[in-house]
Specification:
By secondary structure, the chain is an alpha+beta fold. The protein has 9 helices and 12 strands.
């Protein structure tokens, strides 16, 4: 009986001290958050809806703004002046088509959405097995369901040749007012898994065409060409403060990225690194203050 009493007493004592410890931690955490809310300058600025507490928002080290240092780190594949041509839409689409079939099935839908491109996996008879710009397509249609009849007729003949190993080619639209202004046809060696309603048979070709921009365009002041993906080439933002109160001054290059212009085609012996990320990769008051630019100092 005494042993049972001791065990019960110990259990009650353990529970008691656990409760005391939990309450103590809760009180300490509440006190800590209360102190942060009253002393942290960034929290106070948000609560009071004032500017961010940056002592000298425009004061950056010379290493980030010195033109001579920038020139010394500029690679052979870049131009000091914004004088490089913006790649032609057809060249861009042809390059993306070459990369397209290396992508997974679901990635192809994303590319079509980002770059405003229609892409159809088609056999030599004009059967469209996959329409990567339509997420609910299950197969069973032919090209004239996606393009004007006259264009579909010409495309079907070209698809048959290209799918069998012919060279990629562009096709001008018969009447751009009724559909895309032009099409690009390239061989597709990786059609992926066959869909339930598909009627096509190998070999296949990809037919790609530009889609018009959506009706709800961004304001003329917006820098975005593709929202949150790339900027309008050869645009500039100068003497404007961002949401942090920092004065911005930067140039967008010929590819829609925040950097010096890129020489195309790439010169022999030049290596290029593409940094992919969110605001921490893209944001900075000047192009010299960006993380990708800092890689040149390594």
């Amino acid at each position: 009986m005494k042993r049972l009493f001791r065990v019960g007493f110990a259990a009650v004592a353990l529970v008691f001290w656990l409760v005391v410890l939990a309450l103590g931690l809760e009180v300490w955490e509440r006190w800590r958050w209360e102190r942060v809310g009253k002393t942290n300058p960034f929290v106070l600025s948000r609560v009071r809806q004032t500017g961010w507490p940056l002592a000298a928002p425009d004061d950056f080290s010379p290493e980030l703004t010195d033109p001579a240092l920038r020139a010394a780190r500029r690679g052979a594949g870049q131009s000091a002046q914004p004088d490089q041509p913006v790649p032609d839409d057809r060249v861009l689409l042809a390059n993306r088509a070459a990369h397209f079939q290396r992508l997974a099935h679901w990635e192809r839908f994303i590319v079509c959405d980002i770059y405003r491109v229609s892409a159809w996996l088609t056999d030599g008879r004009g059967n469209v097995d996959k329409a990567y710009s339509e997420s609910d397509y299950t197969g069973g249609k032919v090209l004239d369901a996606f393009a004007p009849a006259a264009d579909a007729y010409r495309l079907t003949g070209l698809v048959q040749s290209v799918a069998a190993g012919g060279a990629p080619a562009f096709v001008e639209a018969g009447n751009p007012a009724q559909g895309p202004p032009w099409y690009y046809v390239a061989q597709c060696d990786d059609p992926g898994e066959k869909m339930a309603g598909a009627k096509g048979e190998p070999p296949y070709a990809l037919v790609l065409a530009p889609r018009p921009a959506p009706a709800t365009e961004a304001s003329p002041e917006s820098l975005w060409d593709v929202d949150f993906y790339s900027y309008k080439p050869h645009t500039r933002r100068a003497d404007q403060r961002n949401v942090l109160g920092v004065l911005e001054d930067f140039q967008v290059n010929n590819l829609g990225l925040r950097d010096d212009d890129v020489i195309l085609p790439k010169p022999a012996g030049v290596r290029r690194i593409v940094c992919v990320g969110a605001s921490t990769t893209e944001e900075g008051p000047t192009n010299d203050a960006l993380i990708p630019t800092s890689l040149r100092r390594c």
